Amino acid sequence: MPVVMEAGRISRALMRIAHEIVERNRDVEKLALVGIRTRGVPLARRIADNLHGIVDRELPLGMLDITLYRDDLMRHTVGPQPLLRHTEIPFSIDDRHILLVDDVLYTGRTIRAALDALVDFGRPQAIQLVVLVDRGHRELPIKADYVGKNLPTAVRESVQVRLVETDGADEVLIQQPAEEELT
Amino acid sequence: MTPGAADGGAAGGAASHLSRLRSRHLLSAADLTAEEVLLILDTAGAMREVGTRPIKKVPALRGKTVVNLFFEPSTRTRTSFEIAEKRLSADALNISAATSSLVKGETLADTARNLEAMAPDIIVVRHQASGACHMLADICSSRIVNAGDGMHEHPTQALLDLLTIRDHKSTFAGLKVAIVGDLLHSRVMRSNVVLLTMLGADVWVCGPPTMMPAGIGRLGVTATSSLDAAVDGADVIMMLRIQLERMSGHFFPSLREYHELFGLSRARLARARPDVIVMHPGPLNRGVEIASDVADGPYSVILEQVSNGVALRMAVLYLIAGVTEGVD
Questions:
Q1: C-beta atoms of B54 and A86 within 8 A
Q2: CATH number for the domain running over A12-154
Q3: Fewer CB within 10 Å, N side or C side of chain B?
Q4: Beta strand pairing call for A97-105 and A31-36
Q5: Which of B280, B277, B273 is nearest to B189 (CA)?
Q6: Mutation for B interface: A86, A88, A94, most B CBs within 10 A
């Protein structure tokens, strides 16, 4: 499986994103991060740590599970039903600038669900989208504000983000469909 | 451990690796595997968060119709299902025996076929006949959830009891659970025994010999008519309601004598472990199976059971809806 980002590149991308966030948001105290389960959460935490180093401020951090907002329940889905996990947003999102963090931006459906979920918690002033990898093939009019890496892919390929916190190593892989699956 | 502290991980570190149930119906606790039970409990743990939000609603079952078909009186279970359905954005409608065509002599099967013709997605059924839900599952294409069938099973009650136990105890394995009271008529007992023994608990059942179902030992429990023996060193005590409405004969001389022999009093409770929890599926017969100071006392988790009921039923409805196998 070809590795397209290794640990060093991932950490540099997350540092660059932190700088871009500071550059584009004057009111740093209004910012808060919300990671989308599963891998958006450790990414959000790392970006929060980077921001702490830059502006010396601890930003509120939440985690969002979008399972209950998906649009494919009671339909024949390709993969298994995702496991429902905990949503934890321990602060009011009203009037905040929310940085929504996810690992891979693909069809945009996860982000659509996350936006629906977020607005159930209040009325943020703005929501900005942070992704580690944008692999294209959008099915909805959604665009990321901060991108770690633009990665042109074919639909039948799959992109895997692996992180130390969840998978024991930092890397982004492109998986080609296996030969035996094709025949 | 505070309620909710066990969220996210299953008791004893055994997390569920499943992400869906096998069956689109929940007819009986006996149909579930241990893995499925843990999946339901984990999902219910996550569902609790929805109830703490300012807007207590998620769109998971938006546009789905859920019929609550109740042929027996119920406050807790029906309300609990209805709140669960509404929090998942399903359209819930309630049919009770008193207001339905059943009083005009329509059979259960005909009522079900007519409901079915209006294409509900899920039917939640409570019926006085054991096996009523199984029959409906055979003739309906809707998903069926058993909310209590006769003296057979009440799976969602047992599951919410497990959720409550898991909030307080680190594991089910080796836990001494005493289930006390009207064993003969209790579907709550039957479902609990099935699930608790499946998860490795040491289950004791206790009641008057007249209310001891024949062959109960085959369920893998210790049966006794001594409340002291059942309560001694217990981690969990589950008191059952005396179901006067189901009794066709005389099972004990008087309620007062029953309370003396099988009622849970403070003195009796002292024999249990210091961190014992006392449960009751409700409604309470105060001063019969349970003394008021025990029901309202520090060991009682009776109201936690009710709160957990909503999250648990949300989990069941959500997971049942996610099963696509065998659905046209």
A1: no
A2: 3.40.50.2020
A3: C
A4: parallel
A5: B280
A6: A86
Distance from B102 to chain A by nearest Cα, in Å? 31
Q: What residues of chain B lie within 8 A of the CB of A76, using their CB?
A: 324
* Chain B residue closest in CA terms to A119: B55
A116 contact B CB<8A: yes
Tens of pLDDT, residue by residue over B3-30, are 433 333 333 334 456 778 989 999 999 9
For chain A, which residues make up each domain, given as ranges?
12-154
Domains by residue range for chain B, with CATH: 17-153+308-320 (3.40.50.1370), 155-306 (3.40.50.1370)
**Contacts for B129 with CB less than 8 Å, ≥ 6 apart:** B108, B149, B150
Give yes or no for a contact between B152 and B190, defined as CB atoms under 8 angstroms apart.
yes
pLDDT tens-digit series, residues B286-320: 999 999 999 999 999 999 999 999 999 999 999 99
ipTM of the modeled complex = 0.79
Contact yes or no for B59 and A68 at CB 8 A: yes
pTM: 0.88
Who contacts B2 (Cβ-Cβ below 8 Å, separation ≥6)?
B167
Q: What is the pLDDT of residue B107?
A: 87
A121 touches chain B (CB under 8 A): yes
